[in-house]
Amino acid sequence: MVALSLLPFFLQFLGLSLGEVLGQGLCGSALGISEAEAVRYGLVSEYYLYGQLFLLLLALKVTYALGLMVLRFMYPDQDPPFALGIWRLGMGLSLTMLLLFLLTRTLPLPFSTPLGPAVLAPAPLDPLSLLMVLPEPLLVGLYLRYRP
């Protein structure tokens, strides 16, 4: 589970180096430029905002995966006493990733701007994004199979 949770984080680095071939990935639009620069140069788009959401989600998933490794060292022979909470957190992160991916790739989402409400266009579907979200259904299956 740890390796599958870490995989999208490491795959995102392919978007930095192979962006022309595979696409920018889930959060490629938000990498390499600060929010202040993006606002200053008018680069804030729906893809930048979607990238920030996925960047936050990937950071949470990496933290969760590293926490799982630490807990395995702390409780080598048994499950921790709060295993159900850990399971719920992992299941929630994976389902959130899947849901957010489907929403941002298929539906125009509402967003508040200084000029009023706007509708954000769906993000483009690139091969790297698909590779990054591919482990999530497998993770959900593993979570359902090994529920405490």
Short key terms for the protein model shown above:
single chain; 148 residues; mainly alpha; two-stranded antiparallel ribbon; 7% strand; elongated
State the end-to-end distance. Answer: 14 Å
How many whole angstroms does the radius of gyration measure? 17 Å
Number of helices: 7
Shape assignment: elongated
Largest sheet at a glance?
2 strands, antiparallel
Helix % is: 55-70%
Describe this structure in words.
The chain is mostly helical and 148 residues long. It has one domain (2-145). Helix content is 66%, strand content 7%. The chain has seven helices and two strands, in the order H-H-H-H-H-E-E-H-H. A two-stranded antiparallel ribbon has the order 1-2. Strand 1 and strand 2 (116-120) form a beta hairpin. Helix 1 runs antiparallel to helix 4 (46-74). The radius of gyration is 17 Å and the shape is elongated. The model has no long low-confidence stretch (mean pLDDT 83).
What is the secondary structure topology, with strand pairs?
Layout: H1 2-17, H2 19-22, H3 35-40, H4 46-74, H5 83-106, E1 109-113, E2 116-120, H6 127-133, H7 135-145
Antiparallel strand pairs: 1-2
Helix pairs in contact: 1-4, 1-6, 1-7, 4-5, 5-7
Quick summary:
The chain is mainly alpha-helical. It has helices spanning 2-17, 19-22, 35-40, 46-74, 83-106, 127-133, 135-145; strands at residues 109-113, 116-120.
